[in-house]
Amino acid sequence: AVRIAHDSNASFIVAITRSGRTARMIARYRPSEHTLVFSDSPKHMNKLALSFGCQPLETATFKTVEEAMIVVREVAFKHKLAKKGEKVVLVWGFPFGSAKDTNLILVETL
C-alpha cells in the first residue's frame, strides 16, 4: 500500500480497520504520506495515535465501499487534506467487520 501510494502520488492513505492491525502494518513502513485511520473501536483509537503517521478518526461501521468513499471524501475536503482530482489509497479487510486479514487495496480519485 505504501509503494502504491508513493507511485501513484496519492495525497494520503486511508486504513479502515477494527483492530488497528491494518494501520500498524502501514506505519511499519514509515510512509511519507499521511495515514488516516477509520475505526469504529474507541478502544483501539488511542493505541493508533501512537503509530507512525497515523491520524485516527472514529466512524460508524461501513457496510459498502461506496459508503466508505463518501466519508473519505467528506473528511478529505473538510480538513483540506486533498483537492478534487487528487488520489487516495484505501486499504482494508473485506467484508467489513468480518475479515481477519487486509485483503483489499483501492486507488480512488477524489
| Strand order within the widest beta sheet | 3-2-1-4-5
Round the Cα radius of gyration to an integer and report it. 12 Å
Order of SSEs, N→C? HEHEHEHEE
Shape descriptor: globular
Approximately how much helix is present in the residues? 25-40%
What number is the mean pLDDT? 85
What is the CA-CA span between the terminal residues? 18 Å
- Percentage of β-strand residues: 25-35%
Largest sheet: 5 strands, mixed
- The tally of beta strands, per DSSP, is 5
Low-confidence stretches: none
Summing up helix and strand content along with how strands pair, one would put the structural category as alpha/beta
Annotation field: number of helices: 4
Structure write-up:
- The protein has 110 residues and is an alpha/beta fold.
- The protein is built from 4 helices and 5 strands, in the order αβαβαβαββ.
- Strands 3-2-1-4-5 form a 5-stranded mixed beta sheet.
- β2, α3 and β3 form a beta-alpha-beta unit.
- It is globular and about 30 Å long.
- It starts with a helix and ends with a strand.
- The model has no long low-confidence stretch (mean pLDDT 85).
Topology:
Blueprint: H1 2-7, E1 12-16, H2 21-27, E2 34-39, H3 42-48, E3 54-58, H4 65-78, E4 87-92, E5 104-109
Parallel strand pairs: 1-2, 1-4, 2-3
Antiparallel strand pairs: 4-5
Defining key terms:
single chain; 110 residues; alpha/beta; five-stranded mixed sheet; 4 helices; 5 strands
What's a quick, concise take on this entry?
The chain is α/β, with parallel strands linked by helices and 110 residues long.
